[in-house]
Amino acid sequence: MDLMGMMGKLKETQNKIEETKKRLDSVLVDEQSTDGLLKVTMTANRKVKSLTIADELLEDKEQLEDYLILVMNKAIEKASKVNDAELDAVAKMDMPMIPGMENMFK
User: Fold this and answer.
1) Using one digit for the tens of pLDDT, what is the confidence trace for 4-13?
2) How far apart are CA 10 and CA 15, in angstroms?
């Protein structure tokens, strides 16, 4: 077992993960209410980029709050799936096999 080689590979994988995280800032995820009255766009790193609210929702504070909670949670879930899939792919592809840790990324 080449410990220095493994350490280098771990550092390389860490750098690739950081690059992927930066790239995910430019991957946009869109979500909207079923009637299209509220729309959210966020990055795959779960940062809100835009929010569009139909005028009719502004007349009912409680309905607007319900819409925001529902649509934001759906957008966060979708962005999290993209984020997790991208980071998992980098980790699985580039991680060196360390004895006893074979199942760590499954």
Assistant:
1) 777 777 788 8
2) 9
